[in-house]
Specification:
The complex is a heterodimer of chains A (291) and B (679).
Chain A (H helix, E strand, L loop, with lengths): L10 H7 L18 E3 L7 E7 L11 H7 L3 E9 L2 E7 L12 H18 L3 E7 L3 E8 L2 H13 L8 H8 L8 E6 L5 H14 L2 E8 L1 H4 L6 E6 L5 E5 H25 L3 E6 L14
Parallel strand pairs in A: 4-5, 4-7, 7-8, 8-11
Antiparallel strand pairs in A: 1-3, 2-3, 5-6, 9-10
Chain B lengths: L1 H5 L4 H5 L3 H11 L3 E4 L3 H41 L11 E8 L7 E2 L2 E2 H14 L6 E7 L3 E3 L8 H10 L9 H12 L5 E8 L3 H4 L10 E7 L7 E10 L8 E11 L4 E9 L2 E9 L4 E9 L6 E7 L9 E6 L5 E7 L4 H14 L2 E6 L13 E7 L5 H8 L4 E5 L5 H9 L13 E9 L1 E3 L23 E6 L8 E7 L4 E6 L5 E4 L16 H13 L11 E2 L5 E3 L10 E4 L5 E3 L1 E2 L7 E3 L6 E7 L2 E8 L13 H5 L4 E3 L2 H9 L3 H26 L1
Helix pairs in contact in B: 3-4, 4-15, 5-6, 5-14, 9-12
The chains are: A alpha/beta (291), B alpha/beta (679).
């Protein structure tokens, strides 16, 4: 499979990813036998635990040896290696177009492309959803090279669009995901943190392992000294005239408060939250996802 | 508003006030666009600070607008305060009134007020252009214009100002302003009068400047403070014309025009004699010093009095020419019914030896000679009292024996001119006669009149019997006291109080009615009455030989002289010829006498007469008018000639623009600093 023709998957990235193995710590349920642990019982499985018999259980699973020793009915349970579904949510709102040279969307697209490659290369399935205030594109999970090409082409065609509404997109996407797995959201999270986590609750309840990648340009963390400027919102077009000296300190406090709020909620809900600054290489973002 | 309606060129200046508003608006719309991912956080921050930021913007706008309005005001200042003298681009006619009165000689610091006024006036003239015209009035003893009309030769006027000097006289502000108005009348273009003076309150207060509305009046006061000063304001002799051998009292008055108590030494010089007295003057107070001098020869002499250690020397010396008499001159006027009394008086005066009685008729009162020491009126009924009051006003004592037809009201009306209309008071004073004689009493024994009778050497002046008299009451007479009175209290000789040396004589001296005139005491009594009546009257009138600076000296010779032989020697030693007065009447005149001091009339180098020119006391009070009082004259008050020039010419713009710019920057900097402090 040749990858030179793709914008967001470069040969040097492939060489770098060759040493990685996608292995997030998450419980999955898959159709194919694979490297990932599943609570589903399988035929060629490793012993996991004993469980007391309850009416309705298959009698074939009763361990008669244990019954002979203890005079009690216990079932043997096994862990089955299975394939993993990785669901990638890429924010494609207009705000992701911010950045001089490398926009946040381009940065996120590099990460998404490499992650897709890594997942498929590991024999797992990956889905991709591009959204802004609605779902623009949804690519159902797949694990073939063709599927990867489809995803990479979609990323290349993708451009920053309308306003961000992550919570709404998450709510709409939930019915599309039939199997639980890994949910990776790449966004700038310009939305209400409480609303975001409210939308994530169904996923968490169903057993998804959620990773939130918060993409930020350094100029968003600390305002540049531009003097008196008319700030124009990339999503709404709203203009506000202010002197950067006047608002820099207040802005730094506000963005820090927003990040802290997201991190706090993520910790409480057992969600991984990673700040992805565009001035750091996206390879660092794989630390939580590979082994 | 009419200023703007009549001068369309001013509207663009007013439009300048809109500049800050435009700057404010453009400044708000100009910042570059910065496309940012989300302005939500910035919006929240600004929402918190909006209440602070908005007023700050308005404050900046107000400051800028005020600064520009101030600039416009400064530019328009000459026109706003120029009394609507017309278009500023017209030709200008300026008359500078330069006060050169004596008070301008006061030194404020290193310069006199006059030097400062000259510099300011010259500065004002320097602001005129080549097409403008000007004139200068030197307002000293007499207001004198340099040119007969307003002319273009500014340099010559400045030269005249440089050569001008302070005079010893006083200025007549009204006359000077009228002359200035007269010079400007009929001229085309803007007309302005600029007065440079100390605006001495004693001189300028109450001056009603009748300036036509098309002439602007600008006043520049060069007086910076109330100058503390002490002055000799009066020097008189008492009696004014002493007899040879008589003691004369030289009365000197010293005034303190300051808020501090002053100690001064006053020195009197009479020929070779010197004497001095020290006095303490309370704040704004005065002291009267008396020096006694015996007249030994009947020749005029000059008494000089001087004050030591004073900052304003012009008024620290005073001269008095005393002309002693060898004989007193008594004018005796007999009216109808008073001829006998007049004759007796005349004989008695002649008997004194040191007095000469001149018998005059009633018509003489209408055109009298003032060279009399005492006037005696016999039988006058008080008719036309103004004629008599003229004598009293000049300090000439009048001894009046009322006629029997004198109305009661005239007795007091001779001084007050108030005649009661009550019926009884228009009736004549009642004449009383009785066989039983009335006796006289001395009512005021301590009076100087009776001093020589105290030892009994000259008898008793109240001795004798009297069978007739006028029944007059003290209430019917002018305020005064009785020197002699009848035993029933009716006044026999009444002395009026105050400044009027009037004596009412109610003693018949006809031998059919009285034995009084036939007694030996009568002549000494009359002599003492004439002598004592002259004393204490020296302050009533200025001596005839005292002049104010700038006046012409006048002499009416009593003998035949050739005019070409007569010269007048001035205090500086120069002798100038006298000339015949145009008014005729044998008057000779010389002058004007501009120097203070003693002048001598000479005929072939022999001193015939002396005159004195003294400082005008009004000039000694150096306090100036306040600025509101000057403004009350309808004048624009300038701090200096430069200010007047700025009003007339406008000002150089660039320093003001620079200053305004710096001011705006400073204000904005302060506001920015305040903003950071608020944050």
């Amino acid at each position: 499979m040749s990858h030179q023709r793709f914008q967001y998957l470069r040969p040097e990235d492939i060489r770098k990813l060759a040493s990685f193995e996608f292995a997030p710590k998450a419980v999955v349920e898959g159709y194919l036998a694979g490297r990932h642990l599943s609570h589903s019982r399988g035929s060629s499985v490793e012993f996991r635990d004993y469980r007391q018999y309850v009416p309705g259980d298959d009698l074939a699973l009763v361990d008669w040896r244990v019954y002979g020793r203890t005079d009690r009915y216990y079932l043997r349970t096994y862990e089955q290696e299975t394939s993993l579904d990785c669901h990638l949510f890429l924010d494609s709102s207009a705000s992701m177009g911010f950045g001089k040279g490398l926009t946040k969307l381009e940065y996120a697209s590099f990460f998404t492309a490499c992650l897709s490659y890594l997942v498929i290369h590991g024999g797992d399935r990956v889905s991709l959803q591009l959204f802004d205030n609605t779902i623009r594109n949804f690519f159902a999970p797949g694990s073939t090279g063709t599927h990867l090409s489809t995803l990479l082409n979609a990323l290349e065609r993708n451009t920053p669009g309308g306003q961000t509404s992550l919570a709404e997109s998450l709510r709409r996407s939930f019915p599309l995901l039939r199997r639980r797995g890994i949910l990776i959201v790449v966004s700038d999270f310009f939305d209400d943190p409480a609303a975001i986590f409210a939308a994530l609750s169904p996923y968490l309840h169903r057993g998804f392992k959620v990773f939130l990648y918060h993409v930020l340009n350094p100029a968003e963390v600390e305002l540049e000294d531009r003097g008196l400027v008319a700030f124009r919102d990339l999503e709404t077009g709203q203009r506000i005239v202010a002197h950067t000296d006047d608002v820099r300190a207040g802005y730094a406090v506000a963005i820090r408060k927003h990040i802290d709020s997201l991190r706090d909620l993520a910790t409480r809900r057992n969600v991984d939250y990673i700040v992805a600054r565009t001035d750091t290489h996206f390879h660092h973002l794989f630390e939580r996802l590979v082994r | 508003m009419s200023l703007f309606l009549s001068n369309l060129v001013l509207w663009p200046l007013l439009a300048l006030i809109a500049v800050p508003v435009l700057i404010h608006l453009f400044a708000r719309a100009r910042p570059p666009v910065y496309e940012f991912s989300s302005v939500e956080f910035i919006r929240r921050i600004l929402k918190h600070t909006l209440r602070v930021r908005k007023p700050r913007d308005w404050l900046l706008l107000i400051l800028r607008t005020l600064a520009v309005a101030l600039l416009v005001f400064v530019f328009l200042r000459p026109m706003l305060f120029a009394h609507a003298v017309g278009n500023p681009f017209q030709k200008r006619n300026v008359v500078v009134v330069l006060d050169s009165s004596a008070s301008m000689g006061w030194a404020e610091g290193s310069q006199t007020r006059f030097a400062v006024a000259c510099a300011e006036a010259s500065e004002t003239l320097a602001g005129l252009s080549g097409r403008d015209a000007a004139n200068v009035i030197l307002a000293g003893m007499k207001a004198r214009p340099v040119f007969p009309s307003v002319g273009p030769n500014i340099a010559y006027l400045q030269g005249e100002i440089r050569r001008a000097q302070v005079t010893a006289g006083t200025v007549d502000p009204g006359t000077a302003l009228q002359l200035a108005v007269k010079l400007l009348q009929g001229r085309e273009g803007r007309k302005e009068i600029c007065v440079f003076s100390d605006f001495q309150a004693s001189n300028w207060r109450g001056v009603a400047a009748e300036i036509p509305p098309d002439i602007g009046l600008t006043c520049v006061s060069v007086a910076k403070s109330d100058a503390p000063n002490c002055a000799i304001t009066r020097l008189v002799a008492d009696p004014v014309r002493p007899l040879q051998g008589e003691d004369v009292t030289l009365v000197c008055e010293v005034v303190n025009y300051s808020e501090q108590t002053q100690r001064r030494t006053v020195v009197l010089g009479v020929e070779e004699n010197r004497s001095s007295q020290e006095t303490v003057l309370p704040p704004w107070g005065r002291a009267t010093l008396r020096f006694r001098h015996r007249v030994t020869v009947p020749a005029p002499f000059v008494a000089t009095v001087s004050l030591t250690d004073d900052a304003f020397p012009a008024d620290d010396r005073r001269w008095l020419v005393v002309e002693p008499r060898d004989m007193l001159r008594v004018g005796v006027v007999g009216f109808e019914g008073g001829d006998v009394t007049a004759a007796v008086w005349s004989r008695a005066v002649r008997a004194l030896g040191w007095a000469r009685a001149d018998m005059r008729d009633a018509a003489w009162l209408g055109n009298p000679s003032w060279d009399y020491d005492v006037v005696m009126l016999a039988g006058w009924n008080g008719d036309d009292p103004a004629r008599v009051r003229r004598f009293l006003g000049k300090g000439v004592p009048v001894i009046w024996c009322p006629g029997t037809n004198t109305p009661v009201a005239r007795l007091s009306g001779v001084l007050s001119n108030v005649v009661s209309s009550a019926g009884r008071k228009l009736e004549p004073v009642a004449w009383q006669r009785q066989a039983e004689a009335w006796k006289l009493n001395i009512a005021t024994p301590g009076h100087a009149l009776f001093r020589i009778f105290g030892g009994g050497e000259y008898g008793d002046p109240a001795r004798g019997v009297i069978h007739g008299r006028l029944f007059m009451k003290a209430a019917d007479l002018p305020t005064g006291s009785a020197l002699l009175a009848y035993s029933d209290g009716v006044p026999a000789l009444w002395a009026c109080e105050g400044d009027s040396p009037l004596y009412v004589w109610n003693i018949p001296i006809d031998k059919t009615l009285s034995s009084w005139a036939a007694q030996g005491e009568f002549v000494p009594f009359l002599g003492e009455l004439i002598l004592s009546s002259r004393c204490g009257m020296s302050g009533l009138a200025r001596p005839g030989n005292e002049y104010s600076p700038g006046q012409m000296l006048v002499w009416r010779p009593e003998f035949l002289v050739r005019v070409e032989d007569v010269r007048v020697r001035f205090p500086d030693g120069a002798a100038l010829p006298a000339k015949v007065a145009e008014t005729g009447g044998g008057l000779l005149m010389a002058g004007p006498a501009e120097q203070l001091g003693s002048y001598a009339w000479l005929i072939r180098d022999k001193v015939i007469k002396r005159d004195a020119v003294n400082f005008v006391p009004m000039e000694s009070d150096l306090r100036p008018l306040s600025t509101p009082e000057i403004k009350a004259m309808g004048a624009l008050v300038g701090a200096s000639g430069r200010a007047v020039r700025e009003w007339q010419d406008g000002i150089t713009l660039w320093p003001m623009l620079l200053a305004a710019g710096l001011l705006i920057l400073l204000c904005e900097g302060l506001v920015a600093a305040w903003k950071r402090g608020v944050r």
